[in-house]
Amino acid sequence: MKALKHLNKYFYKYRYQLIIGILITIISRVFALFTPRLVGASINIISDRLDGKVTDAVFRAELMTNILYLIGAAVIAGIFTFLMRQTIINVSRYIEYDLKNEIYQHYQILSLNFYKSNRTGDLMNRISEDVGKVRMYVGPAIMYTMNTITLFTVAIIYMVSTAPKLTLYTLLPLPILSFAIYKLSRLINNRSTIVQQSLSTLSAYTQENFSGISIIKSYGIEPLTNSEFDRLSAENRQKQINLTKVQALFFPMMILLIGVSNLIVVYVGGMQYINGEIEDIGTIAEFIMYVNMLTWPVAMIGWITSLVQQAEASQERINEFLDTQPEIQNKINEPTPIKGDIEFKNVSFTYDDTNIEALKDVSFKLKSGETLAILGKTGSGKSTILDLIGRLYDVDNNSVLVDNKPISELNLYSLRESIGYVPQDAFLFSDTIKNNIKFGKEDATDEEVFEAAKNAKVHNNIIGFNKGYDTILGERGITLSGGQKQRVSIARAIIKKPDILLFDDCLSAVDTETEEKILKNLVKLTKDKTTVIVSHRVSSAKNADQIIILDDGKVIQSGNHESLINTDGYYKELYTKQLSEKEM
Ligand SMILES: Nc1ncnc2c1ncn2[C@@H]1O[C@H](COP(=O)(O)OP(=O)(O)OP(=O)(O)O)[C@@H](O)[C@H]1O
């Protein structure tokens, strides 16, 4: 139960609703338990009438009163049972909502490394499946526990006061029932977990195939994917059948044990009545009703135990993530305005997970408003420099400085707010084009959106779509071309008007003519902004104040366009090669 302690703060938050819920549960059960007593009393009065002990008038009056009480008790018990669900189950839904938000907010602050070491499916599972299992503890488990305790306490008081010996015999099979249900529930849960796992394998496989459908079609491997799907599906079917087998045992077992209890009541109760140990025949009817009312809650004890065990396991998995501390911590609470000076002082950086030394002794200094272009072969460390400027990873020795301060001494959120980042693989959300651009500035007006799109040279493409800026992208909508995606992504960054702009090879899918036009616009827009452009093309770098060339994490050349084209080396070779390609 240690892991479930995490939920105590929520129980405290909803304490009043829970207390009311518990009181309502008690009231509903007390009223429900009037029924057996009233049925017993009604049979007794019938028996008395048959024996001539009461007059017809008394018989009619008493029977009628009992019937009215029975209806009244059933109605009240019904209303309170409704309210019981409305309070306790509602609280469980509130707690489920709060817990999901807590987990989601925590996910948001965790560092990139966390996302690399955990699979997306697992993150999703913990926030949906596991939270669902925890809710079963918060809601149904608590509700049925209260239900069982109240029902048991009141019923046993009534039963012992009526016929103590018969009570003992009646209750004998119940612990066996509870134990059997517990065992069965565990078996059911184990098998459902196996079914869940096989379902997620099946859906992960299907999802991946749908995403890569164009590859599957162009390679003509549909028969292969069909037979793999068939295999996974057959596996899942077998697991479902195994689960159904044990599930099918649940009700027969309950019916068997209720039957045995009923038999005991009829047999032992009948013998006691004949022997004169119990006075009224109505007691037997009353006890049969108790047995039937108690069987379900007793079975519940077994079920609840297994629910709590599952919730405990799920909460443990949730806590494992909630206890994970973000590697990148914000140490400064007050916002720090950012000017945009950037300096790398002999920066070396190794990725923990791969042990790849991506940067080796890299140094450069960029004043606010200046532009730096980074060129180099693939895998030479260019994107890593941008990641370090956005503090997606921390370097050990305070060697990355922004505004002359170690980057870790700036407010993390101020830093990130001041950055407009265009990644290498433009990611667009399944939303309208307009909202995708406004992502950079939520309160942007339509005019600002159009202007950003014009500067990114994508406006004309967008207005060419039937729904223009309201065109939905992604799975539910149209697919943009690689170059269009990159340009929407640029518009998203420039609409923000950030102090620092980071472009990661974001014009690679754009033809050179459009690139030229976008770069022209960017020169105007980034005049007073610190800009870092990663590229494989000289055309993107030539206007920069500074250019550095990386090779295997090291700076092998630096300078500006003029100086570099006059020096033998990577830049000059690239320039000559790209110039001749252009002329061809
Ligand atoms: N998140 C990461 N985790 C571990 N290793 C990484 C990570 N990102 C990059 N690397 C490694 O670090 C090295 C530098 O990668 P980086 O992405 O900075 O290169 P790049 O110059 O931007 O390459 P490209 O031009 O292909 O985009 C590569 O060897 C890469 O495999």
UniProtKB/TrEMBL annotation:
Residue ranges of domain ABC transporter in the record: 342-577
What the entry lists under CDD domains is as follows: ABC_6TM_TmrB_like (cd18541)
Q: Which UniProt keywords apply?
A: ATP-binding, Membrane, Nucleotide-binding, Transmembrane, Transmembrane helix
Its subcellular locations are: Cell membrane
Q: Which residues form the ABC transmembrane type-1 domain?
A: 19-310
Q: Which residues cross the membrane?
A: 20-46, 66-84, 141-160, 166-184, 246-267, 287-308
Identify the Pfam families for this entry: ABC_membrane, ABC_tran
Give the record's membrane topology. Multi-pass membrane protein
Q: Name one GO molecular function term.
A: ATP binding
Q: What is this protein called?
A: ABC transporter ATP-binding protein
Q: Which organism is it from?
A: Winogradskyella pulchriflava
